[in-house]
Amino acid sequence: MKILFIGGTGNISSDCAALLHRRGHETRAGGDGTWGQLHDAYFLAEGDTAELNAVFASVEPKFGKPIFGNQGSKLAPIGDKPVPASVLKALRNPPRSEPTKDKP
C-alpha cells in the first residue's frame, strides 16, 4: 500500500510513517511550507528563510544537510527505525473527544 502524509512531517507522523514502512508500505510526506527530509525523518518548517537557514546550519554537523521538497518532487521513503514506545501506546489508545452539542 502507498501512503502519503499531507503535512505529515511532525514527530508523530514521522513515527507513524516509520511504522508503516516497517510493515512494508511505501510512505511519502509533503506539506505547504518548507518541507523535506533531514536525518531520515520528514520535516515541515515555517519561518523566515534566513532564520530557517540558520537553524539548518546549526544542526548540520549532527544531522547533515536537509533535502528540500519542491512541488511535484518526491522524497525518498524514510528508513526502517523503531517507533518509540510512547507513540505506540498513544496509537493503541487515542484520546476521545467529548460529544458535541448542536448550536441553535
Folded structure, characterized:
- Helix content is 34%, strand content 21%.
- The chain is globular, with a radius of gyration of 16 Å.
- The chain has helices at residues 11-22, 49-63, 85-92, and strands at 2-6, 26-30, 34-38, 41-45, 67-68.
- The mean pLDDT is 75.
- The strands form two sheets. Strands 4-3-5 form a three-stranded antiparallel beta sheet, with no helix packed on it. Strands 1-2 form a two-stranded parallel sheet.
- The chain is built from three helices and five strands, in the order βαβββαβα.
- The protein is an alpha+beta fold and 104 residues long.
Entry keywords:
single chain; 104 residues; alpha+beta; three-stranded antiparallel sheet; two-stranded parallel ribbon; 5 strands; globular
- Using DSSP, what is the number of strands? 5
- Whole-number mean pLDDT: 75
Q: Roughly how many Å apart are the termini? A: 43 Å
Widest β-sheet, arrangement of strands = 4-3-5
Percent of residues in helices: 25-40%
Q: Write the element-wise H/E pattern from the N-terminal end onward.
A: EHEEEHEH
Which structural class do the helices and strands define? alpha+beta
* Low-pLDDT residue spans: none
Please give the largest β-sheet.
3 strands, antiparallel
Strand portion: 15-25%
